[in-house]
Design a protein that fits this description.
Elements: H1 2-22, H2 32-46, H3 53-80, H4 92-121, H5 142-147
Length: 158
C-alpha cells in the first residue's frame, strides 16, 4: 500500500500542477489536489516506519476519502450551476475536480480492500461467523448474565 500512496500522491500532484498552469486563470484553488497529493506521499513515507504503518495508511485513506468527497461535492455544484448550461465544453475546474475525485476514490477502494485482506490474514475478528445477537465464546449471553448470582461485595447497601 505504501507504493499505492506514493503513486496516487504523484498523480494528484500532476493534476494540481496541470490545472494550475494549463488554464489561464492561475487560481490558487487549482493547487488543492497538489496538497492532497503531498499529504498522501507523506503518509506513504511514514508508513515505511515499523511501528506506524497501520496508522499512516489509515491516515492516507482518510485523506483520500476527504479528497473524494470534497471534490465530488464540487463537481456536483459545478455541473448543477447554470454557467455552462448550453455549452458543449466542460469547465476546466470541473474536469480537474472530477479527476481528483476519481483518483481519490480509487485509492480509497484499494485501501479498503487492503485493510480487509490484512484483517483476514491475521485471522479476523473473534465475532466473525456469529449472527447478530449471538454470543461470542468469551461473552455470556444476556440470559446467563441475568441469572448469575451476585458476588460478595456487590450488594446494594446504602
Amino acid at each position: 500500500m505504501k507504493n499505492h500512496a506514493l503513486s496516487f500522491g504523484v498523480a494528484l500532484i500532476i493534476i494540481g500542477l496541470f490545472g494550475y498552469f494549463y488554464y489561464e486563470s492561475h487560481e490558487p484553488t487549482a493547487l488543492i489536489p497538489l496538497g492532497f497529493g503531498v499529504a498522501l506521499i507523506l503518509s506513504g513515507l511514514c508508513s515505511a516506519k515499523e511501528g506506524c504503518h497501520k496508522h499512516a495508511m489509515h491516515a492516507a485513506a482518510t485523506i483520500a476519502l476527504l479528497g473524494a468527497v470534497g471534490a465530488g461535492v464540487m463537481v456536483v455544484k459545478g455541473l448543477s450551476s447554470g454557467d455552462d448550461a448550453g455549452g458543449a465544453a466542460i469547465k476546466g475546474s470541473v474536469l480537474m475536480q472530477s479527476l481528483m475525485a476519481l483518483v481519490c476514490l480509487v485509492f480509497v477502494v484499494l485501501c479498503v480492500k487492503s485493510f480487509m485482506a490484512a484483517r483476514d490474514s491475521r485471522g479476523g475478528d473473534s465475532t466473525e461467523g456469529t449472527e447478530p445477537g449471538e454470543a461470542t465464546p468469551e461473552a455470556p449471553t444476556s440470559e446467563e448474565a441475568a441469572g448469575a448470582e451476585p458476588e460478595a461485595g456487590d450488594d446494594d447497601v446504602e
